Amino acid sequence: MREWHLKYRKLKNIVFHMALVFAACAVIIPLFMVIQYVMIKGFNSLNWDFFTQIPKPVGEVGGGMKHAIIGTFIIVGLAGSFAIPLGIICGAYLSEYGRGKIAALLRLSTDVLTGIPSIVIGIFAYLLVVVPLKQFSTLAGALALSIIILPVVIRSTEEILKLVPRHIREAGLALGLPRWKMIFFIVIKGSRSGLITGVILAISRAAGETAPLLFTSFGNMYYSTSLTNPIASLPVQIYTYAISPFDDWQRQAWAGALVLIILVLGLNLISRLIMNRQQLGFGRRK
Amino acid sequence: MKSESTLKNTISGSLSQREASVFNWAPQKQDQFVFASMRVLSSFVILILVALMVMLIKTAWPVLVDQGTNFFTQSIWNPVDEEFSALPLIYGTMITTFIAVIIAAPISIMVALFVNEVLTPKLAKLVGLFVEMIAAVPSIVFGLWGIFYLGPFIKNTLAPFLKEHFGYLPLFQGPSFGIGVLTASLILSVMITPTITSICREVFKTVPAMRKEGALGLGATKFEMMLLTIVRPSFSGIVGAIVLGTGRALGETMAVAMVIGNQPQIKASLFAPAATMASIIANEYAEADSEMHIAALCGVGLVLFVLTLIVNLVARSIVWNYNRSSK
Hints:
Oligomer: heterodimer
Strand content of chain A: under 5%
Number of domains of chain A: 1
Number of helices of chain B: 13
CATH superfamily of the largest domain in chain B: MetI-like
Number of domains of chain B: 2
Helix content of chain B: over 70%
CATH class of chain A: Mainly Alpha
CATH superfamily of chain A: MetI-like
CATH class of the largest domain in chain B: Mainly Alpha
Distance between the termini of chain A: 47 Å
């Protein structure tokens, strides 16, 4: 009887381990399928024209996404230049002062903003910028993306600055520095690599966002760098092409997806590398 | 924390003593100025959130007045006749999220256990990286894959299989076009897996090694050890992780919009196309002309916002409580 029971328990153990392996495969296989599919389809359709030309008129084969690639850089760059300084300052406020009503409210808002679906943020940017200007514009897209980046940067800044040991702050104060100099020139400056990691992660997240751009920066079949006109972006262009009935456009959608995935996963991996290399300034992460 | 503040007080106290007599009052002013401007910038971020809510409510107000409770009880969404009811969209969001969580939750928990407890540290790092990479893939790429690969696969392989074996259930009846609730749910389940997995991993890590070793020392198999010392005590943490994953699934837009078919209807069959709140906004917003249509879409956005807000706050309070009790 005991023998039998022991065997039964061991069998359960083995079955469970098999289930674990199965689960891991079930998660990782889709990732590889997506990447492999994008790679194969994308590399077949990627060519030099893709980076140097703008779309040809409907029906003509060829053309590229130069305008969309540049558009993505403009939108994300604008969004970043607005959200990153603000995010780092707010994060520093949370970690260095971090008490009182405003800090509590800021923490709550950051949490809420992180959870808001990006499409709702798109609606907000539409109401705030597109409605008064009466047209879709780069600015509206950048605003939407910056609201997406902002909470991520605030959160990561707070977490990273909290890793700075107390004695470093005290040493700064003991030298007679004003507190703000201590915060900006010792705490923040010393945590540079950690902050950069957080910022790159936030940017990589924003670069792949499509939903909030659909009705803010809208899309454009021509090259444009104007801030108050519609502008193309890589994700929106992929979307437009993917749901179009033309074979050549679908082909280019795959090429676009490949470029986008390389960009986003590349940024992501770079930030992880930085995180592993440097030990986040003063703080040693376990 | 406390000792830090006392130390700070002594430092600033001694500074202020000196400053009363000597020339040194400027740094304090600088500090006050910087502190004040940081507070202003922080309030600005809070203001963004408040403005978002106010503008959503303000824009959605006409449709809420016009349609009244019909907005939540009728089953017709028809922009042409200006009949707007969010019910089919809410249904679409709920059903896709529900199926996605049902599929993703057990798998994610098992993956978290596998990575934390079974794999060697190096392999664990690699597999963990792969899982987190899934979260980094832009949703538009998942959508593209869904249209061109998963959709046809479901139409040609999975749907006939399900029909043959479970065809008596109303869930698996009717024709499958490859796009529909099932496809959207499957893609969603892939997309929320990394969220649930990584939080579960964090939760599982808080279990002291002593307890695990104790269980093994008493003769438990590894399976029993995981069940008794890791999964059961972490129950609330796991629930928090699942709820956070739910929040992510609720708001997911592009991947769903590309594979769900965007027909606001309530059908029992999982093969039928439907529409979610996020997908209808993505599809119709840029083309919406009439005031009422925009208002209705904002109303849908408002419902989506409130829903995700509640879900996220619940999840966070669970995880917070968990962290506090485990410390």
